[in-house]
Design a protein that fits this description.
four-stranded antiparallel sheet, Methylamine Dehydrogenase, Chain H
Length: 331
């Protein structure tokens, strides 16, 4: 079975009642479970509208990622396998009231909402990052209607073209368009949108000026005679730690995680303009700031971070959960 087609995503909503929201790339449904009740049945099921091919048959739409507005839990967004983001107002209908479209029918793997719930970011298989602006115009009234309205992106960015602008990277690597497996906004610096590619590369796009500011390129599989890693069949979901712009991602070739310092200035060892001095202009000693690889017992496919103490929860290919926490010593 194709592991990537069996991916399940979800999140827990704790604003009013405990909810778990789930999707699968095998189904066109969003399942909402109220875990304050003991029941295996979802409390609500949201569905995409049917699409018909030129031959008259129904097009299967799987759902890949979920987001919700921070203001309330009634508006749910889910990206799909046909290059669109479906937006529901679940108080009004179980079908989408808005579809954020792209010019591609490729899978969108990951979506993010900015802190003001006004900008939506999406990225996927074709190596593009799409940006939608939900403010003003006709779009502002769409969530008040039960009729689905299609909304094209404000802009689209080809990530490989932006990577080619990094001179030292282009001189050492053959830059080709790659699948974007995940995007994440930095909770401690909202202008930083992290991306993770299918070959294991990670980096940061500054969404204010649309430039790649950080890049981390781990050793390729062939360097260790690993061949093509089986992890390439799995979507990896990294995570930011809640403070200090630290990005955590599972390795594509080894059992372990990378803990990457993506601090938003040139003192970061991953910054494209990194200052390789013992002490840079910001006064921060570089030897105290570095990227680390942490070996683990299993291959990691997803990471999540505790919002208060930065404990890392890592999901593995073997369906295990590993807990990684910094040891604390008494003074």
């Amino acid at each position: 079975m194709d592991k990537q087609k069996a991916t399940v995503t979800g999140y827990v909503d704790q604003r009013k009642v405990l909810k778990v929201v789930c999707t699968s790339t095998k189904r066109n449904e969003v399942l909402i479970f109220d875990i304050s009740y003991i029941s295996s049945k979802p409390s609500q099921v949201l569905r995409t509208r049917h699409s018909v091919s030129v031959f008259g048959s129904n097009i299967h739409k799987g759902l890949t990622d979920i987001a919700s507005t921070s203001l309330d839990d009634s508006r749910i967004l889910a990206s799909d396998t046909h290059g669109a983001i479906n937006v529901w107002d679940r108080r009004k209908s179980t079908f989408p009231c808005l579809e954020l479209t792209t010019d591609s029918r490729g899978t969108l793997n990951s979506i993010q909402l900015n802190v003001e719930n006004q900008i939506v970011f999406g990225a996927g298989k074709n190596g593009f990052i799409y940006i939608w602006d939900l403010r003003g115009g006709r779009t502002s009234s769409t969530l008040q209607s039960n009729k689905e309205i299609r909304h094209p992106p404000l802009t689209s960015l080809k990530l490989s073209s932006m990577l080619e602008k990094i001179g030292p990277l282009k001189a050492q690597s053959d830059i080709v368009s790659k699948e974007i497996q995940s995007i994440n906004l930095d909770p401690s610096c909202p202008r930083q949108l992290a991306f993770h590619l299918d070959d294991g590369w990670s980096g940061v796009l500054d969404v204010y000026n649309f430039q790649v500011t950080h890049i981390h390129c781990p050793p390729p599989a062939w360097l260790n005679d690993s061949g093509v890693s089986a992890d390439l069949l799995y979507l990896r979901k990294p995570s930011w730690l809640p403070i200090n712009s630290i990005y955590v991602v599972g390795s594509s070739t080894d059992s372990g995680i990378y803990i990457l310092d993506f601090y938003p200035d040139s003192s970061s060892p991953s910054h494209v303009d990194y200052i390789d001095d013992a002490q840079n202009l910001s006064g921060v000693k570089n030897q105290e700031k570095k990227n680390r690889f942490l070996p683990l017992s299993e291959r990691v496919t997803a990471c999540a971070a505790h919002p208060l103490n930065s404990t890392i929860i890592a999901g593995t290919r073997n369906s295990s959960l590993l807990v990684i926490s910094q040891s604390h010593k008494s003074c």
